[in-house]
């Protein structure tokens, strides 16, 4: 037995050695060289931790050599922190150990008593067992199999969702009221990750009604199309998805530009997984030529039903890559319930799944119950607590556990290559040599995984940052500097050089005319909206040190592929309201006689409800100062955001600084005066929020109503230099001097997933 274990350990070590290093590995360093390398590494890591904003945040770091087991660096490693999506490392490890890499999901299609010769059945039953990977394309393949098995006519379609319990959303999801795709519910019968794509196209000419198409289409959806075609290049769109009985109501507001080619897609969650699956199946059966005479119903499969077809998923090792590389919250929660059903008996539940994970951590890894907190499998919101030392212990365990090590290591993103690390660590020694899981929430950033240093030594590490203020960009840069420092250990330049290159945010360079000429080139590339430019733009963004030019490059990346959330992430991290970016870009705009670069794209994201973009727009409003042109541009921008994302704007105003809120509300009042609509969506939402269940939200909304009423009155008054009558506009919803009208019953738009920041990811 000991010989067998030794062979397994040697095999796992060989696999790790093959997976982690890229390229030839140098000869092992001497003891003195290793001590010197590690001392240089510790010095570099401490330097990063002493920089703002890491210095004023809660940070936990633990790094350990996989070669000799030595802890090479630790900092607050036992403090329990919110790990965000690093929890997926725990979920996937437990699933590998309990389900096995060859595990497959079955989805059964049955009839009673059996399929007759004429192919006509009274009821088609579909029994799901949690497969998270069924897509419309796979379901079309199943429909073809049913056709070739002889099925020609169906009465009712009964969808059996009983393998999981009725609790669709795990603990932590209730902290966020959102229809974004990453909030998708669980279901034993699920389709397209329980999200739907809404495609938007302009009409034939400015002013014409836009086109809204669902993918996949079915009777499950009720579409309220309020989309128009605009004359401007800007896109201002809000899409909401809400349950409506057994159906889903999709409301589309805003406008798309007439000149933009192609469709714009927005992904939203659905709320009734079995009905979504069943209605799509009904549509596909009809498309294939089969008659469906009855209805789609939720029910149980009778024991006497006979199987017509079983649709099997890929093996678990394939599904694992979608979980970790793309940080899929949906797959993580499906796995948690699957472990509960398989390990504790059906129906699978979140509680049962967590019990299975806790047993794995205690029995296999050696992490005792009660020393951490795990409530869900995805890491979404404020529901979990782990320490850096605990996550590192898990990583070390999985790296030597045969036969799970290769599947586990290959599932996490590779720095500079794929997944959520595709655009991180560029230009550093970590590219191709670091594999890690990211984690991102408001005030939380994490990175845990494996790295091979330039000197050939292999490390596991876990880094978590909590409670930081402001943008995530500087925190991410700090974590990347920590990882790059480990990768550079043993190189000729050493870890300090990696820290200097990645932690340095750059500084303004060159005369404004020279900077404007460079920016014009990148603006022209962005206007082409051509994905073939992405490689060049990413290289330029990586090598550019001027913050203003980097911000323009980030916008061009986003405009070249607005569907890629990583491009939006780059823009949000690169663009700031400071003088080094927004201030200098206003100067560039005057030189080039264009709108301030970046603002249009930021407003586009904000108009769709993107939380970070909304915060950035309010910061930009506060940074306009006394610049009349900048104020006018931001007033128009806030008016557009107020139309498509009114409730989100109120929430963002509440979270903003007093100075930014004052400036933004003044500019917003001007925009509302220009709109001149008593039924403007913003006034409706503001009235609705005054009756919110949260007393703080209600109080803020009432105060904002009063403030805006006063500012609108001031904006309507004639200026001394103008003379004449004030602009004739409709009075606002209410305020200090007017009664509050009845609350509207209309629905308010939630955040669009056009370019989400993928919380938890």
From TrEMBL:
<feature type="compositionally biased region" description="Low complexity">
    <location>
        <begin position="723"/>
        <end position="749"/>
    </location>
</feature>
<dbReference type="Pfam" id="PF02113">
    <property type="entry name" value="Peptidase_S13"/>
</dbReference>
<keyword id="KW-0378">Hydrolase</keyword>
<feature type="signal peptide">
    <location>
        <begin position="1"/>
        <end position="26"/>
    </location>
</feature>
<comment type="similarity">
    <text>Belongs to the peptidase S13 family.</text>
</comment>
<dbReference type="GO" id="GO:0006508">
    <property type="term" value="P:proteolysis"/>
</dbReference>
<dbReference type="GO" id="GO:0000270">
    <property type="term" value="P:peptidoglycan metabolic process"/>
</dbReference>
<dbReference type="InterPro" id="IPR000667">
    <property type="entry name" value="Peptidase_S13"/>
</dbReference>
<protein>
    <submittedName>
        <fullName>D-alanyl-D-alanine carboxypeptidase/D-alanyl-D-alanine-endopeptidase</fullName>
        <ecNumber>3.4.16.4</ecNumber>
    </submittedName>
</protein>
<dbReference type="InterPro" id="IPR012338">
    <property type="entry name" value="Beta-lactam/transpept-like"/>
</dbReference>
<dbReference type="GO" id="GO:0009002">
    <property type="term" value="F:serine-type D-Ala-D-Ala carboxypeptidase activity"/>
</dbReference>
<keyword id="KW-0121">Carboxypeptidase</keyword>
<keyword id="KW-0645">Protease</keyword>
<feature type="region of interest" description="Disordered">
    <location>
        <begin position="711"/>
        <end position="761"/>
    </location>
</feature>
<keyword id="KW-0732">Signal</keyword>
């Amino acid at each position: 037995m000991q010989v067998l274990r030794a062979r397994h350990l040697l095999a796992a070590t060989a696999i790790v050695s093959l997976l982690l290093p890229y390229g030839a590995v140098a000869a092992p360093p001497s003891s003195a060289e290793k001590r010197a390398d590690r001392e240089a590494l510790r010095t570099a890591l401490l330097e990063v931790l002493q920089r703002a904003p890491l210095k004023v945040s809660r940070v936990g770091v633990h790094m350990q050599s996989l070669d000799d087991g030595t802890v090479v660096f630790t900092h607050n490693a036992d403090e329990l922190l919110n790990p965000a999506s690093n929890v997926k490392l725990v979920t996937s490890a437990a699933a590998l150990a309990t389900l096995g890499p060859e595990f497959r999901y079955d989805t059964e299609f049955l009839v009673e008593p059996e399929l007759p010769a004429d192919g006509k059945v009274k009821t088609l039953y579909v029994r799901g067992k949690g497969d998270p990977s069924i897509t419309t394309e796979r379901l079309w393949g199943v429909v073809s199999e049913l056709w070739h098995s002889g099925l020609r006519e169906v009465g009712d379609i009964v969808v059996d969702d009983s393998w999981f319990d009725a609790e669709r959303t795990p603990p932590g999801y209730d902290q966020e009221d959102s229809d974004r795709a990453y909030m998708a519910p669980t279901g034993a019968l699920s389709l397209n990750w329980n999200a739907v794509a809404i495609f938007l196209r302009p009409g034939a000419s400015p002013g014409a009604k836009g086109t809204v198409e669902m993918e996949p289409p079915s009777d499950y959806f009720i579409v309220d199309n309020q989309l128009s075609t605009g004359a401007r290049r800007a896109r201002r769109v809000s899409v909401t998805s809400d349950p409506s009985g057994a159906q889903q109501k999709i409301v589309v507001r805003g406008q798309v530009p007439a000149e933009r080619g192609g469709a714009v897609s927005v992904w939203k969650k659905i709320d009734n997984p079995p009905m979504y699956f069943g209605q799509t199946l009904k549509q596909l059966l009809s498309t294939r030529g089969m008659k469906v005479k009855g209805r789609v119903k939720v029910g149980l499969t009778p024991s006497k039903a006979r199987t017509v077809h079983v649709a099997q998923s890929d093996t678990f090792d394939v599904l694992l890559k979608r979980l970790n590389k793309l940080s899929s919250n949906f797959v993580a929660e499906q796995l948690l319930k699957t472990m509960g059903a398989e390990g504790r008996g059906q129906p699978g539940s979140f509680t049962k799944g967590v019990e299975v994970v806790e047993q794995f951590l205690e029995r296999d890894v050696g992490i005792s119950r009660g020393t951490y907190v795990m409530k869900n499998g995805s890491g979404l919101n404020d529901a979990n607590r782990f320490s850096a030392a605990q996550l590192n212990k898990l990583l070390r365990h999985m790296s030597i556990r045969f036969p799970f090590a290769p599947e586990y290591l290959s599932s996490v993103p590779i720095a500079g290559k794929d997944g959520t690390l595709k655009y991180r660590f560029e230009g550093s020694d970590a590219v191709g040599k670091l594999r890690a899981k990211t984690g991102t929430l408001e005030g939380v950033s994490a990175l845990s995984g494996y790295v091979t240093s330039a000197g050939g030594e292999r490390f596991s590490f876990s880094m978590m940052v909590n409670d930081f203020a402001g943008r995530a960009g500087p925190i991410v840069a700090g974590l990347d500097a920590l990882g790059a420092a480990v990768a550079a250990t043993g190189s000729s330049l050493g870890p300090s050089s990696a820290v200097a290159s990645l932690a340095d945010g750059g500084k303004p360079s060159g005369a404004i005319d020279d900077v404007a000429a460079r920016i014009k080139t990148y603006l022209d590339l962005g206007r082409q909206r051509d994905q073939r430019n992405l490689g060049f733009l990413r290289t330029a963004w990586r090598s550019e040190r001027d913050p203003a030019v980097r911000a323009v490059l980030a916008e061009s990346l986003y405009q070249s592929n607005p569907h890629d959330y990583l491009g939006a992430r780059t823009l949000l991290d690169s663009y700031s309201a400071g003088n080094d970016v927004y201030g200098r870009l206003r100067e560039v705009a005057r030189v080039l006689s264009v709108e301030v670069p970046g603002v249009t794209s930021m407003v586009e994201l904000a108009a769709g409800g993107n939380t970070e973009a909304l915060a950035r727009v309010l910061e930009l409003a506060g940074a306009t100062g006394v610049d009349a042109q900048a104020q006018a541009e931001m007033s128009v921008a806030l008016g557009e955001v107020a139309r498509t994302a009114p409730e989100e704007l109120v929430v963002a105003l509440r979270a903003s600084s007093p100075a930014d809120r004052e400036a933004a509300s003044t500019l917003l009042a001007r925009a509302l005066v220009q709109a001149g609509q008593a039924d403007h969506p913003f006034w409706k939402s503001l009235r609705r929020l005054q009756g919110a269940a949260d007393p703080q939200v209600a109080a803020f909304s009432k105060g904002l109503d009063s403030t805006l009423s006063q500012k609108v009155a001031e904006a309507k008054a004639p200026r001394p230099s103008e003379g004449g009558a004030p602009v004739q506009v409709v009075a606002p919803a209410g305020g200090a001097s007017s009664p509050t009208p009845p609350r509207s019953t209309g629905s308010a738009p939630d955040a669009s997933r056009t370019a989400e920041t993928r919380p938890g990811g």
